[in-house]
């Protein structure tokens, strides 16, 4: 199941399919890399204010998780979309473990002022919005 299209080529591409395909293209690089502990290695960081660069990865993960949490909370099922949700639930839970592991190359900074507070809030909101699929699966 690639990110180009999760649906059959014979599909008429409903609005939902188009949205899910677009969502996949946006979140796949973040979630795949954080699950594989390659986010910091592969995600370019370009900030005008260099002091914010060290928080860019937390921002990417936090906002991604917050944004997709309600969709993930629908859980997996046997549809193409449900199988895609299962993939992203697995990637997200692996990634969450990695970002909290001090031995991981993708360990993220949560304890410095002030930017991590904002990005951590997004992450926590995502965990609250997808409690069953994310928090309960960690």
Describe this structure in words.
The protein has 138 residues and is mainly α. It has one domain. The chain contains six helices and no strands. Helix 1 packs parallel to helix 5 and helix 4 packs parallel to helix 6. The longest helix is centred in the N-terminal third of the chain and has 21 residues. The chain starts with 14 loop residues before the first helix and ends in a 9-residue tail after the last helix. The mean pLDDT is 91.
Q: Beta-sheet strand percentage?
A: under 5%
The string of secondary-structure elements, in order, is HHHHHH
The radius of gyration computed from the alpha-carbon positions, rounded to a whole number of angstroms, is 15 Å
Return the domain count.
Answer: 1
Biggest pleated sheet: none
Report the total helices: 6
Write down the overall mean pLDDT: 91
Measured distance between first and last alpha carbons: 24 Å
What share of residues is helical? 55-70%
Counting helices, strands and paired strands, the structural category is mainly alpha
Q: Uncertain regions: pLDDT < 50 for 5+ in a row?
A: none
Number of strands: 0
The backbone outline, from C-alpha atoms, is globular
